[in-house]
Amino acid sequence: MKILIIEAESYLAASLASKLESEQFSCDIKSPAQALNDDDYDVILLSMSGFFDYLKLINAHKKSIIILLVNYISNDILEALKAGADDYILKPIIIEELRRKITLLGDYKRLKILSASYENIIKNNTDEIIKNKNLLKNISLPLCLISQERFKSDLFVCALAKVKGLNFARIKLPNDEIPGEHIDYFYDFENLNAQDKKKILNKKNENIIIYAKVSQGMQNQIILDEKSLITEIMPIQEYIKFCIISYQDIYTDIEIANMLGVSRKLIWDKRRKHGITKQRKI
């Protein structure tokens, strides 16, 4: 990281530069006048000692991390923080504390930029979904999102969580759930074992969303693309499984068996093998 030191006490400035350079930082020392026209620094160490317009310097370095070097707490420091300075450190300066502040603020800035980039990507991809805000608000949970592409499900969850004013957590296993008011998003539901699937499906009146490629027999489900209705040839055993899951709320096992031309025992064996539990209607 490139650090600019603006300090009237030349001995202190040189000492700071030497110690920070030993920590692998690159340092320059400049006067306030020189610093006004140079914004190519990651961090500005700005001394509050001296008669100069520190607010003007802060405004000139909006993109940099600004740490104030101060002798005592005053209203000037509060004004500087309001104007955009990030933090302050009291003299005499402990170099370990200064290094920690520089590192933490640098990490925070990088995460903030990264978060803003992700937010922008999500916004660009969910604007079309959020147009139906009233519809999203009325969607009840638990919910099953059906699509051949998990990316579509991920975007829908982002949009739904935003409209409902909730955060969401991507959960793999039931035991990974995080306490608190948010949506638990089970993104890998179909690869769970039968016991874990049953545990999730038995959760009633909870903020749960599962992603699947075929219907899981939940009361609330949304098909996000037409491909989820099958547009490709699949093995007969997979097709039987698909039909059981997709139509169990419409037809009995006997009716499904008759339509497929298979025995009822085969349907029951499929249920047992894949952990497909028929949801009882209350």
UniProtKB/TrEMBL annotation:
* Gene Ontology BP, a term: phosphorelay signal transduction system
* PROSITE patterns in alphabetical order: RESPONSE_REGULATORY
Task: Supply the SMART domains for this chain.
Answer: REC
Could you tell me the superkingdom of the organism this chain comes from? Bacteria
Residues in Response regulatory domain copies: 2-106
User: Cross-referenced SUPFAM superfamilies, in alphabetical order?
Assistant: CheY-like
Pfam families (UniProt xref): Response_reg
Task: State the protein's name.
Answer: Response regulator receiver domain-containing protein
| Organism annotation | Candidatus Campylobacter infans
